[in-house]
Amino acid sequence: MTDFTPQQVRDAERRLDALADPHEQLRLAVQQAEGYRNFLSSLTAVLTAVFVLKGQEDLSKLASGPRWTVVSLLIMGFVALVAASWLTVVAVHDRPGREIVGEPERLLRDEVRRTHRIWRLVEWARWLAPAGVLGVAAAVIVTWVAPAT
User: How far apart are CA 96 and CA 99, in angstroms?
Assistant: First the structure.
């Protein structure tokens, strides 16, 4: 039932030994913190750019229909962008404090499962990110072309 070669099992045993090393755990924790920092920096940059480049300063000047369209598009766009950013963080960084698997074959199965999970998360993020950008862009365009009251 095993799909792994003896060499893969030996390699997994070496990775297990490396993961149990406190120095390696610290390095991985620092690396994870850097990823979260990059996430927060990029999200802040995206949101700042959107607010600086937005349409009208005062949405209350828009007629009711276009105003609620803009508000809805902005909410959906920002939710999609935040979700896409979060999915990429989850794809790159596993849960903090995750239990280290103690069996080489189980570790290999976990690695295969995690690889497939990362692919799924990145695929969702690939669609959510442009949807979010398009939603925010559409909201800005509506503020430019909608008649004021």
Answer: 9
